[in-house]
Specification:
heterodimer; A: 376 residues; alpha/beta; four-stranded antiparallel sheet; 14 helices; 41% helix; B: 339 residues; eight-stranded mixed sheet; 34% helix; globular
Chain lengths: 376, 339
């Protein structure tokens, strides 16, 4: 885990007052109710909440993949200062190619069953060779330099390759076969970095031939190949078994030092958050209700919902009678409760809670909560 | 002790044939349940844990006679029900019920709760009159924490937690003595999960039920069960009272499984990658010890002789050379012994 000091304070992503509604036959679903969220550079932020609380809608808004019946009513999403919501389709496509990548829950749904894994990964590079050419060249040149450092000198073949590539760096042009070769080389190195066993074989495999854990590794590789500034991992380990989940979480811990990207880990599993994240944002019914560093949140949860959620996780070291649960269930967001959306289920609700929406305020350093209990 | 057994399986097998080619010849078998012998005592909750594909659900369905066993026997309440058919099986169908994982898929969307509850009562001749049947339905719906107004509603009007309550009511309405709970809380949010678990616990006390609780969530197993069986590729590899299993697991796979659970406490972070690789395909199960390729303690012996179930401590059974030999004599060099 990175300490707050190392992480720095530069916001890579800043979401403010994001309101999203869905038009359905039953009525307008008020899915996001003024979401406030920021992600710092190289930080691993956990976004937790129950199903239907708006975690996924938030992530889809960031990558611009909301379904057609969704409407962004207000708000802005700034990625490195640029508003993603006002971008044209083409700009957004470029942003997805370069800056933001997303990994979904079920890799089998998102991989094309009739194409090999290799062709799907290389396709990303083929869509916009101009964007990727510098990365490909840089990667291969690094490899050559590494060989040079190890052996002290290069054989004639590598030497001429180095010269060719260096001239390509200047001109920005390279012959198609060379690009193909470099792409394959680059893809293999990414597959190796996500610890996919037998990467050469995996490239030729179809998704159904891989196991769940391997498919998820391939999806992570597809995301990382773009060297994104922001990686969204939406319930990345939910469909996996615990032992495979442990492998993937461990991989995330190892990768974070290598990839230099900010990560939003979206999950309903607080244990996963406790295991890998630096900071946590808790969502309930379309609101971010509490944000804090991970140790602080688990030691000193403030919002009644966070407390209820923490108390209801089944623990290996507690009996069922020590376990509590939150009464009631998640509200229907076509008719959301007035004021604080948690008040009908809140054990500490008082009059004001049903009348106004509490703001997300910093009650102690780096600990934000949206609850009237903590307002002076 | 033995007459306290409610259900007993002996060498239960369920192999699914995989057919291929123009004559649909059986080319290989998917060995979902591969020789399970287990006793379930009256009034207990036996947990079945394991990763997906290990045969938990198939085992549950086989003992319910929802799928035909390939070999072996199932003994329920002193009667061998393996070969029973149709009408003979009906009284047992009433005593054995099952609650499924997905409450969205296990309820008929076009049938309201009342008619769903009355149907099994009619089939098993539970109530003598319509009035009685309605009264029983109301009682059952109250037992699971809903109210009689809910009887007129349809499944889509309920939340996930409420649907699971209805699924439980459907199992209870025929007054069973044994229920197989197949991942009953896996599709629910954490905040409602413990409500359902507590409900199941209370019902067990009130109605003298025996449960098989199938789950991949070890924390839930710990809270709900008296004993637990760990399954790996179709076989039970460890069986122990619940505290022993969690405090002193013996089988290497159980140890790895327990160590892989992330803890909801950031101060207890640990190295997570405890088990390499994936579960092998159940069509190509490794010979001898099936966990051998992933086991860090594997010796030559594990590749040549299949281990058998041994009681290493009172009521604590494992199927492993390593720990059995280890317990017998920790000085013996395992690789030499096998030669």
């Amino acid at each position: 885990m990175l300490t707050p000091e190392i992480r720095g304070n530069e916001d890579v992503l800043k979401i403010s007052n994001l309101n999203v509604i869905f038009h359905t036959y039953a009525g307008e679903v008020k899915a996001l109710n003024g979401v406030e969220l920021s992600v710092k550079k190289s930080e691993l932020l956990g976004l937790v909440g129950e199903s239907g609380c708006g975690k996924t809608v938030t992530s889809l808004s960031i990558v611009g993949l909301l379904p057609p019946n969704a409407e962004v009513v207000s708000g802005e999403i700034l990625l490195n200062g640029k508003n993603l919501l006002t971008m044209t389709k083409e700009e957004m496509r470029k942003a997805r190619l370069k800056d933001v990548a997303i990994v979904f829950q079920d890799p089998l749904t998102y991989l094309n069953p009739v194409l090999t894994v290799g062709s799907q990964i290389t396709e990303i590079i083929a869509t916009d060779t101009q964007i990727f050419l510098p990365k490909l060249l840089e990667h291969r040149l690094d490899e050559i330099v590494q060989v040079e450092n190890e052996k002290g000198q290069l054989d004639t073949e590598l030497l001429s390759e180095k010269q060719r590539l260096n001239s390509a760096v200047e001109t920005g042009k390279l012959d198609a076969n060379e690009i193909k070769r470099l792409t394959r080389n680059y893809v293999l190195s990414i597959l190796r970095s996500v610890r996919l066993p037998h990467p050469e074989k995996a490239l030729e495999s179809y998704p159904f031939e891989l196991s769940g854990g391997m498919r998820q590794r391939a999806m992570i590789a597809m995301a990382l190949i773009r060297r994104p500034k922001l990686l969204l991992a939406d319930e990345m380990t939910t469909a996996l078994d615990v032992t495979v989940q442990a492998q993937i979480l461990q991989l995330m811990k190892e990768l974070r030092n290598e990839i230099d990207a900010s990560v939003i880990l979206i999950t309903h599993d607080l244990a996963v958050v406790a295991e890998v994240c630096d900071r946590v944002a808790v969502m309930y019914a379309g609101d971010v209700v509490e944000v804090a560093d991970v140790d602080e949140l688990f030691k000193n949860p403030l919002h009644p919902y966070t407390r209820g959620l923490l108390a209801s996780i089944p623990r290996v070291d507690a009996t069922i009678d020590q376990q509590s649960s939150i009464g009631g269930s998640v509200p229907n967001l076509i008719y959301p409760p007035s004021g604080c959306r948690f008040h009908p289920r809140c054990p500490k609700a008082f009059e004001k809670c049903s009348q106004a929406k509490p703001e997300l305020v910093e009650v102690s350093p780096r600990h934000l909560v949206s609850c009237f209990l903590y307002e002076e | 002790m033995s007459n306290n057994n409610l259900l007993r399986t002996e060498n239960l097998y369920k192999w699914f044939p995989i057919r291929s080619g123009i004559f649909s010849r059986t080319v290989e078998h998917l060995k979902a349940v591969d020789g399970v012998s287990i006793d379930i005592q009256r009034g207990e909750t036996l947990g079945l844990v394991g990763e997906s594909g290990c045969g938990k659900t198939t085992f549950g369905r086989t003992i319910m006679r929802l799928t035909e066993p390939s070999n072996g026997s199932i003994n329920f309440d002193g009667v061998d029900i393996t070969k029973l058919k149709g009408r003979q099986l009906k009284p047992f169908r009433r005593k054995m019920q099952m609650v499924f994982q997905d409450p969205y898929a296990s309820l008929d969307p076009r049938q309201n709760v009342r008619s769903a509850l009355l149907e099994p009562m009619r089939l098993h001749h539970i109530a003598s009159s319509k009035k009685d049947a309605n009264k029983l339905a109301e009682e059952v719906i109250k037992k699971v924490g809903l109210n009689p107004d809910h009887l007129a509603r349809f499944p889509h009007e309920f939340s996930g937690g409420q649907r699971q309550r209805i699924a439980i009511a459907l199992a209870l309405v025929v007054q069973p003595s044994f229920i197989v709970l197949d991942e009953p809380t896996s599709s629910l949010d954490v905040s409602v999960q413990s409500q359902i678990l507590k409900l199941l616990r209370n019902l067990q006390k009130d109605l003298d039920l025996t449960y098989i609780f199938i789950s991949h969530n070890l924390a839930v197993i710990r809270q709900m069960c008296n004993r637990a069986a760990v399954m790996y590729l179709g076989r039970v590899v460890e069986l122990a009272p619940i505290e022993r299993l969690f405090e002193n697991p013996k089988y290497p796979y159980t140890k790895a499984l327990l160590a892989s659970i992330p803890q909801p406490d950031p101060s207890k972070r640990k190295e997570l990658r405890v088990l390499q690789g994936d579960v092998p395909s159940p069509t190509a199960i490794p010979t001898a010890c099936r966990f051998r390729p992933r086991c860090s303690f594997a010796t030559k012996k594990c590749g040549t002789i299949a281990p058998s179930m041994v009681e290493v401590e009172r009521n604590h059974w494992i199927e492993c050379h390593y720990d059995i030999d280890f317990a017998k004599n920790s000085q013996v060099d395992l690789s030499q012994q096998s030669a």
